[in-house]
Amino acid sequence: MVNAEKSLQSFRGVGYKLLDTEIQLYGDIALVYYIARYDYAGDDGTTHAVPLRSIDIYRRDNGNWIQAGSHITVIPSSGAWGEGANKSA
To answer: Is the pTM of this model over 0.70?
Structure first.
């Protein structure tokens, strides 16, 4: 947790791009899958990108969709998502 807290303090989000999404409905349950790229500025002023994969789970309650769960993870990559090209801020 200490490392995670340090990382979150140094990440300054500068952009976000939704690359792909899929929604599956099962009655009052919805699964939302997506792939995104999170762009952030490092302490040295350069920008970097991290590819993410996520699933969000929603349930319908009295006609409203309420988020019931979520899981986000970094996609292991070798630059295919644009994260390899660091740019100056």
So the answer is: no
